[in-house]
Amino acid sequence: MKKYRRNQRVGALMKIFTDRPNHIFSYNYFSELFNAAKSTISEDIVIVKGLVNDLEFGKIETISGASGGVIYIPSMNRKEQESLLNDLCQTFSDPFRIIPGGYIYMSDIFNSPYYSHSISKIIASQYSKQSIDYVVTVETKGIPVALMTAKELDVPLAIIRRNSKVTEGSTLSINYVSGSTKKIESMTLSRRAIKEGSRVLIVDDFMKGGGTAKGMKDLMLEFNVEVIGVYVVISTKEPFNKLVKEYNSLLVLDDVDEESRRIIIKPNDDNKIRINN
Amino acid sequence: MKKYRRNQRVGALMKIFTDRPNHIFSYNYFSELFNAAKSTISEDIVIVKGLVNDLEFGKIETISGASGGVIYIPSMNRKEQESLLNDLCQTFSDPFRIIPGGYIYMSDIFNSPYYSHSISKIIASQYSKQSIDYVVTVETKGIPVALMTAKELDVPLAIIRRNSKVTEGSTLSINYVSGSTKKIESMTLSRRAIKEGSRVLIVDDFMKGGGTAKGMKDLMLEFNVEVIGVYVVISTKEPFNKLVKEYNSLLVLDDVDEESRRIIIKPNDDNKIRINN
Question: Chain A partners of B2 at a C-beta cutoff of 8 Å?
């Protein structure tokens, strides 16, 4: 069997940790993979811990006990976070994005693997200590960011559908009133999608009136799960009073002026963990 | 400014490459990040090349010239691929998944960050040399695998909608006939989503009659783009003649027997690159 040098093992460890953040890997797993003694792996992990710390990639934690092992909890340093937020604000506020009616074309940003992944790193780092069991979203535009957040937290994603589908099996549905248009809408989730008693994080792309987020929270009540947080990428400044009181948003959309072709969008200065329990 | 040791730089390089496969990073970028001479970085890259090769993580390529740099092209070794396919077949064929009417509940698998990411690695490795500009899918169940494939290939994702949305701006729509139900359906994509003359890879979760895939191909014609491939995670054995002639599928669904509660699903032995041009 092949033997590897230390810097090969260190590189491989970083590759494996990066591929699956927030996942517990056992020392045995690495020991077998690298054909090396556990004591050797322990020394490798010390080096990886140091580099993750020195380069501000987050941290490596060692969990002792039978189900123990090593886990990589990524985080984004302040400089990177600021530069991402500036980039996002600039990209979202390009006047080319204005659609008649005062809407903004955003799909390319939300669907971008680069942006959805980058945003998910910020979201996940705020909830990595909250023992989240599922990330939940509603189709369609929030799916990429929600999926990436679920990947970062190493938990499953549940996607709420707008209509009941035969391939979802038995479902739970609710009707809700859209916060901005006041129309009655419905949402549906397969009963198999989420286990009772779980802790879920709701992630979506956009919040105006908050009706959709409230609908999701209400649907989660039907599943007997605890909503640990509601996180949206963009919330609008107005209306100030939204149907959901506790939520977090990365950016705030202040104004869209069709005539002067100006979009004002800013990082959310209140951006902090809010926990509704 | 901080200086880093070689094994720290090697670990950091693997982290950065894994975070963004198929992306060209310049030597300058690493040189500044690590506060190290380009010659030092070159030596680091040689080590990373070796470890990626020795551990069968894919390969590292150096591109010379003004827009040159270093790129990590991941691949999954045969053993890992076989073990993933076996795991998928076993998971998909759990009798618990049978839904009245002979359908199979699959959403949890398609939405799983772990499975969608793993599947995307196989898909992407087959197209990493094809200069794909976009991955295209249709909402909803194919989105996670399509997004992960786009991430692996470092290209944008375009999501075709079932209905026109005001937030998509001007759109192109087509009507098409579902291959299995013969119903007329429509699909819509924002004109801003894809640039003319691009090369696209279509990715979806499931193909029975092939009507949806054909619809997507027809819609791509309207965008004047070239469809380089159609890849579905699961295709059904019957009907043998599908509305799309050239496609690739990871798994083949052979039979669902509601009475005996048996699902037969197998790796697609023909799994190989098919190029329709």
Answer: 54
| Reported ipTM exceeds the 0.90 cut | yes
Mutation site, B5, B9, B10, interface A, largest A CB count within 10 A: B10
Q: Do A167 and B15 touch (CB under 8 A)?
A: no
Where does chain B hold its CATH 1.10.10.10 domain(s)? 6-74
Cβ contacts of A208-211, under 8 Å, gap ≥ 24: A208/A179, A208/A180, A208/A235, A208/A236, A208/A239, A208/A242, A209/A178, A209/A179, A209/A180, A209/A239, A209/A242, A209/A243, A210/A179, A210/A242, A210/A243, A210/A244, A210/A247, A211/A176, A211/A177, A211/A178, A211/A179, A211/A180, A211/A185, A211/A243
Of B6, B14, B192, the CB nearest to A105: B192
pTM greater than 0.80 = yes
Q: Report residue B264's pLDDT band, with 50, 70 and 90 as the boundaries.
A: very high
Please check whether residue B157 touches A, CB under 8 A: yes
Architecture of the structural domain at A78-267: 3-Layer(aba) Sandwich (3.40)
Res. B215: pLDDT tops 60: yes
In chain A, CATH 3.40.50.2020 covers 78-267
Q: Which of B7, B20, B113 sits opposite A150 (nearest CB)?
A: B113
Question: Does A107 contact B167 at a Cβ distance shorter than 8 Å?
Answer: yes
Decide yes or no: CATH 1.10.10.10 for domain B6-74: yes
